[in-house]
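quick one, 72 residues, struct below
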Amino acid sequence: MTNPFEDPEARYLVLINDEGQYSLWPAFADVPPGWEVRLRDAARAEALAFVNENWTDMRPRSLIKAMEGGTP
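---
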């Protein structure tokens, strides 16, 4: 069986959490708590392209805020 997180033929969701971190998620699986859908039912290549285009700063939001002098 192919890993559902790496199957090039599968359909994916792109998720984001409160820290601004993205994740590819198999479209058939329930979205885990704390995550919301940003892109639905996409081919793996399309989902990866979306993440690459939109997740330009890998730091969690709380770290960005702390580095800018705010409170985490």
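The helical segments are 44-54, 61-67.
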